[in-house]
Amino acid sequence: MIKTHQFKLGPMDNLSYLLWDQDTKEAAAVDPAWEPVKLAEFIKKEGLLLQCILLTHAHPDHVNGVAFFTAPEKELPVYLHEADHFMLDYKPPVLRHITDGEKLEAGALKITVLHTPGHTPGSVCYQAGGGVYTGDTLFIGECGRVDLPGSSAEALYDSFVKLSAMPDGTAVYPGHSYNGDKSTFGVQKEYNIYLKLARAGRREDFLKAVV
To answer: Which residue among the candidates 21, 31, 81, 176 is catalytic per the annotation?
Structure first.
């Protein structure tokens, strides 16, 4: 069984995560940022064994805690889509490229990569257990910004079409606490206008809504 713990950190209400296998204690960190010591304290308290770092994208507010973990543990792998590598100011010693649909194994953890460009060209979501860690692609009731360098409203639409196929009971774990910290795809399909438009195939309306 996979367990998860959410951390609200920093001046932008970033949400970082630890997920781990309940039996083996093997864990992964998603977007460690701002106050990585809080993740480290939780890891120590729970006796977790950190296997890797999963980055949803490379904006500084999602990656500025990576060096805290990889400087002392130079073999710790960091996963990030290649399209976002150019944004990194700090390149971790072990930086691994990931692709859409790839199945990652971090000890007993099994994680599926979903390439969801739009907010950035290399944005991904990670599906593990009963949840999807959506980074800045999908927020509670909102979508990621598409007015930044490298962003694309058209790509975000295609990503939302992909995410709209998720089972209703799947949890949504976003990258910021803007309108809430957690939801399900079933709730978001009903109340998130962007996901509703993508699910209905209303591309032009989606593109108008996100600008």
So the answer is: 176
